[in-house]
Design brief:
The structure holds two protein chains of two kinds.
Chain A (H helix, E strand, L loop, with lengths): L4 E3 L2 E4 L5 E6 L6 E7 L6 E7 L14 E5 L5 E5 L8 E8 L8 E2 L3 E5 L1
Parallel strand pairs in A: 2-10
Antiparallel strand pairs in A: 1-3, 3-7, 4-5, 4-8, 6-7, 8-9, 8-10
Chain B lengths: L3 E4 L2 E5 L4 E7 L6 E7 L6 E7 L4 E4 L2 E6 L4 E6 L8 E5 L14 E6 L1
Parallel strand pairs in B: 2-10
Antiparallel strand pairs in B: 1-3, 3-8, 4-5, 4-9, 6-7, 7-8, 9-10
Classes of the chains: A mainly beta, B mainly beta.
Chain lengths: ~110, ~110
Amino acid sequence: GAGVSQSPSNKVTEKGKDVELRCDPISGHTALYWYRQRLGQGLEFLIYFQGNSAPDKSGLPSDRFSAERTGESVSTLTIQRTQQEDSAVYLCASSLAGVAGELFFGEGSRLTVL
Amino acid sequence: GENVEQHPSTLSVQEGDSAVIKCTYSDSASNYFPWYKQELGKRPQLIIDIRSNVGEKKDQRIAVTLNKTAKHFSLHITETQPEDSAVYFCAPGDSNYQLIWGAGTKLIIKP
């Protein structure tokens, strides 16, 4: 596609439920990032995939968070047993050149946990 | 680890005036210095970046200057316009590690 695509754009869930967020990166981009952005705050790094290398999971805030990526394509971020503090916009970005190149962001998935 | 600070956190300027936002970092290995713009409710977008072998880069009304010795780089916007109102993030990094994002600077352009 022309840009990074994320779905769903909005998700409202009840506390304790699991949610899955999807990211379709730009074709050919080997690097993929997930960030969390709470209202009025900066970007909080969650996880980074680069090609077939082991992902950098150092930003995942707890074991309720996990992410997968199949090769250099779609990635899914899963949040289990959601809590109210998980409410945020989850941004996905992809990059051609890895950490030292332009990141192209999706529109984000806004998660609201009631 | 890398420590990144942006100043000021909020900047209000008169339309037509210049705006300068400064980003300081701690990791001397950083060699890539981008600035991103995020308009309200939108995704962040790269507006300008610079690499460590260059001291300054310009693109029309925006410029970035780098002082590697002092470990800071700045975003300069001249002749500010209403559409410049946004939050600006710096995100220095090196080729082996993550971009480390600043907390953001909210730029307000007063008519």
